[in-house]
Amino acid sequence: MKTKSTLIRAALAATFGFAALGSAHAAGFPTQPITVVVPYAAGGGADNAARIIAQGMAEVSGQSVVIENKGGASGSIGAAYVARAKADGYTVLYDASAFAINPVLRKLPYDAKKDFIPVSQAISVPNILVAAPGSAFNTLPDFIQAAKANPSRYTYASYGPGSLAQMAGELLKKDAQIEAVHVPYKGGAPAIVDVMGGQVDVYFANAASSLNYVTTGKLKALAVSSSKRMPELPNVPTVAEAGIKNFDVVEWNGFFLPAGTPPEVVTQLQEVIQKTLARPETREKLGKLGLTAVGSSSADFTKFVNDEQVRWGELVKANNINVN
After folding, report:
1. Per residue in 98-136, is it b (16+ CB within 10 Å) or e — as a string?
2. Domain 126-242 part of CATH 3.40.190.10
3. Which residue from 120, 241, 255, 266 puts its CA 20 to 30 A from 296's CA?
4. Per CATH, which fold does 34-125+250-319 belong to?
């Protein structure tokens, strides 16, 4: 018969054995290819950034990192796929600002808070409030004054219902106490074309897709949406500087894992991402697209995403936004 002390020693050995196995698993991650699911079409902004980062991650980790596009339903199809994936760290979601907006606007086949673990914010990019070169508006106060004098006469574009461009426009309406008509497009490219032609008055355009048009004079920049001016446009004020206090809106991309992924694996993947985004070559490639590398911790990114969801939820209620 085993003594009590023998049983205790056996239990401790088993406990430490399992802990060692867990540590060994974490220390070896990754030991096989990683699939990064981008829930948007190939060739778009998120896809282009993901491919640059994936290349760096492969070099840092020593394992191949494969991009798999699963677009549709504003990113929710790809997100749902990852939510159901095996929680072992090898199927990763690379999502954008829509991840925090979708839950407050749409019925989703997953719970954004319960079904995912935010791992790291990858990039951020401000939006530029643009108008046609021949527009009568030269500054944001010009537009606000005109909109107040002629409620609902003026329009703002977005690259789709529920997009960050719409949220930025709605936030401007709320904070500036103006009215403007939302004109959604099926993507940023057609929105830019119509703003250039004067069919729509203004548009919070992603800097990565609009900066070149601004610097070449094909679009006029009225303000930038971030809290700080863009180095590439030092003479263009922020929305806050133009009189709308505390206005700070940036588009972002980040990595998520399915809930239930072991904490050690989350930490290992976070470290791979952070090391990748700290590499000068990766930062340079992203910078050429107008993107700023971030590489935050899982804890910081979790708080950021939660804060974003609360913020947009409050705006949806205040402005009675409905995308159905």
Report:
1. bbbbbbbbeebebebeebbbbbbbbbbbbbbbbbbeebe
2. yes
3. 241
4. D-Maltodextrin-Binding Protein; domain 2 (3.40.190)
